[in-house]
Write the structure tokens for this entry.
Amino acid sequence: MKAARFSPGALREGPAAASVAFVLGSDVDGGTVWDVLSATRALCPAIVTGDRHVLGSPVPVPAVDLRLLGVVLERGGEVVATAAAAAHGHPAAAVAALGSLRAGEIVVTAPLASIGDARAGDVLVASVGRLGSVEAVVG
């Protein structure tokens, strides 16, 4: 699994994905899954298109193995993709691989459930078990 830094903004047409965002409460200098989890203030469900993302409400890191989180992506009320975070490795490992990160940064993992053809006007909903959901319109 990979992670990247994204800029917030309107979702764009093209490939879209449901992901998990880590909101860092303290600095991380590489390290392990446990270092990342210790530094994480909150997690959010996220929808990503291109270099844009929309985040759901932040929630404290749940006391469960994040690899067990289920992910569902809907378009127009229809389920179009599902996944389990474990299929891509531990989400926090992807964040740790980025190297030095600073408190306050938001890091979005690589796509967990994705589609290749979001179009203007599509209403996307990403639901991530224990983290909640986020909804956005492609524009």
Observations:
- The first strand starts at residue 3 and ends at 4.
- Residues 16 and 118 are 6 Å apart (CA to CA).
